[in-house]
Amino acid sequence: MRKKCDCGRSPSPYCVGWHALTHTEWQTKRIIYEAKLRADLLEQECKDAMYSDDKWTS
Ligand SMILES: [Zn+2]
Fold it and tell me: Which of 12, 16, 17, 36 is deepest in the core (most CB within 10 A)?
């Protein structure tokens, strides 16, 4: 069972163990995490765009 994070480092409400990292490691993890979030958003936008293209052409 996941526990709530009170170290303030987790990107989610739950602890992902980031409190054990050094400050530099944590910053790196956070940057990668945010980049992935943006990539996921972009992917979703692309899918949405393709879907609306399908609607227009069919
Ligand atoms: Zn934590």
Answer: 16
